[in-house]
Design goal:
This protein is an alpha+beta fold. It contains 2 helices and 2 strands; from the N terminus they run H-H-E-E. It has one domain. The protein is about 25% helix and about 10% strand. Helix 1 crosses helix 2. The chain is globular.
Length: about 100
């Protein structure tokens, strides 16, 4: 899945570079010891929520160790109906 979506990471990285160049520079200057590498370059990680059903409720979480100056990219992926993205700190619910 990671490999098949390299074009998605590239597109999101290009968007990040245009909108948040400082964050892009910070993320692309992360040095990892060999043989480690960023799987979703330039993003430092990815979270995948699988097998969600209409009755599924995810516990909210906060990414405490994220780079504060780098935004997250949220990408709905797959076939689904309805759903919400809840941004707790912003007190905002986005309908998907």
């Amino acid at each position: 899945w990671i490999e098949r979506n390299k074009s998605l990471w590239r597109y999101l990285g290009d968007c990040l570079k245009l909108i948040f160049p400082e964050a892009y520079n910070k993320l692309t200057n992360i040095t990892l010891p060999d043989p480690l590498q960023l799987l979703c370059y330039p993003w430092s990680g990815a979270t995948i929520n699988q097998q969600m059903t209409p009755d599924s409720i995810l516990q909210h979480h906060q990414d405490w160790k994220d780079i504060r100056s780098a935004p997250n990219a949220v990408v709905p992926y797959g076939d689904y109906d309805g759903g919400d993205l809840v941004l707790w700190q912003a007190k905002c619910i986005l309908k998907l």
